[in-house]
C-alpha cells in the first residue's frame, strides 16, 4: 500500500508541475469550465421558470446534482482517464512495459494518464456551486452530504471498470475504439437526473452503466428525497454491482491477456 501511495504522490507532483508550467492554458480551461457550468445552471433555471418541479426534482436539488457531477468528473478525469484509452496501449503493443514491473499492469497503464489539472479546474466550479447552494437555501442535510461523497467515489470506480472491460475487447477485435466512444457518449448523462428516464433505461444506468450512483442518488439523498435506509439499500446494491463488474473485468482481462502478442512476445 505504501508503494502505491508513493506512486500516487509522485504522479501528483509531476502533474501539478506540468499544469503550473502552462499557466495560460490552465487559466483558460478553468474559465471555460466555469462558463460551461454557468450555462448549465442557466439552462435549468429557464426550465424551472415554468414549473416548480420536474419529475420530483426542484431547481435546488438539480444544483446539488450538478455539484456531485462535477466531483465525479474531477475524480474520474484525474485518476482514471487512462481507463478509457487502455485499448491503445494494448493495440500498439505497449503493454509489455507494464507487464514486466512488480505492480498490477492495469494500474500502471491507467496511472500513466494521471492528471491533477482537471481537479484544479473543477475546484472552482465546486466552490461556486457550494456557495450558490448555500445562498439559495437548498435543503441540504450536511451529514447526508458527507455520506454521499463516498458513493460518488465508489461510482467512479464502477464506471472505470466498465470502461476497462470495454477496452479489453481489443485483445479480440484489435481495436475497441467504437466501444470506447460509445461509453464516452454516456458520460454526460451524469449531469442529468436519471430518475426522469423510463424504467428500462434506469435499469441500464444502474446495472450496465452504473451512473445513477454518480450524482443522481447522492443528490436525492443529500436533499432528503430518499431516506437513510433507502440510501443504505442503494449503497448495498452499488457494492453488489461493483463486485459483479470487478469479477467480469478480471475474467475478461485474464482471458484477453492469454491472447496478447507483441514484439516482446
Record keyword descriptors for this entry:
265 residues; mainly alpha; 13 helices; 72% helix
Summarize the helices and strands and which ones pair or pack.
Elements: H1 2-21, H2 23-47, H3 59-79, H4 86-91, H5 96-99, H6 105-111, H7 117-135, H8 142-168, H9 170-173, H10 177-186, H11 199-208, H12 216-222, H13 228-259
Protein model, in words:
The structure is a single chain. This protein has 265 residues and is mainly alpha-helical. The protein contains 13 helices and no strands. The protein has helices spanning 2-21, 23-47, 59-79, 86-91, 96-99, 105-111, 117-135, 142-168, 170-173, 177-186, 199-208, 216-222, 228-259. The longest helix is centred in the C-terminal third of the chain and has 32 residues, at 228-259. The model has no long low-confidence stretch (mean pLDDT 83).
Summed up:
Helix content is 72%, strand content 0%. It contains 13 helices and no strands.
Topology as a string of helices (H) and strands (E):
HHHHHHHHHHHHH
Structural category is mainly alpha
Distance between the termini: 30 Å
| Spatial extent as radius of gyration | 20 Å
Number of helices: 13
Which sheet architecture does the biggest sheet show?
Answer: none
| Quaternary assembly | single chain
Which regions have little confidence, pLDDT < 50, spanning 5+ residues?
Answer: none
Amino acid at each position: 500500500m505504501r508503494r502505491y501511495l508513493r506512486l500516487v504522490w509522485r504522479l501528483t507532483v509531476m502533474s501539478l508541475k506540468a499544469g503550473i508550467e502552462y499557466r495560460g492554458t490552465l487559466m483558460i480551461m478553468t474559465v471555460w469550465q466555469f462558463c460551461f457550468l454557468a450555462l448549465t445552471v442557466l439552462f435549468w433555471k429557464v426550465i424551472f421558470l415554468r414549473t416548480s418541479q420536474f419529475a420530483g426534482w426542484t431547481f435546488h436539488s438539480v444544483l446539488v446534482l450538478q455539484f456531485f457531477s462535477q466531483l465525479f468528473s474531477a475524480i474520474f478525469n484525474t485518476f482514471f482517464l487512462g481507463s478509457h484509452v487502455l485499448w491503445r496501449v494494448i493495440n500498439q503493443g505497449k503493454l509489455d512495459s507494464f507487464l514486466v514491473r512488480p505492480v498490477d499492469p492495469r494500474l500502471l497503464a491507467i496511472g500513466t494518464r494521471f492528471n491533477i489539472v482537471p481537479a484544479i479546474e473543477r475546484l472552482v466550479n465546486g466552490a461556486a456551486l457550494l456557495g450558490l447552494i448555500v445562498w439559495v437555501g437548498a435543503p441540504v442535510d450536511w451529514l447526508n452530504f458527507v455520506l454521499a461523497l463516498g458513493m460518488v467515489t465508489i461510482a467512479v470506480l464502477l464506471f472505470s471498470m466498465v470502461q476497462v472491460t470495454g477496452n479489453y475487447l481489443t485483445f479480440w477485435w484489435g481495436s475497441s475504439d467504437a466501444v470506447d466512444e460509445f461509453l464516452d457518449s454516456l458520460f454526460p448523462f451524469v449531469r442529468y437526473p436519471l430518475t426522469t428516464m423510463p424504467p428500462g433505461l434506469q435499469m441500464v444506468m444502474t446495472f450496465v452503466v452504473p451512473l445513477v450512483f454518480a450524482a443522481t442518488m447522492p443528490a436525492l439523498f443529500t436533499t432528503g428525497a430518499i431516506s437513510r435506509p433507502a440510501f443504505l439499500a442503494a449503497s448495498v446494491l452499488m457494492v453488489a454491482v461493483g463486485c459483479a463488474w470487478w469479477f467480469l473485468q478480471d475474467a475478461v482481462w485474464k482471458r484477453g491477456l492469454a491472447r496478447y502478442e507483441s514484439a516482446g512476445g
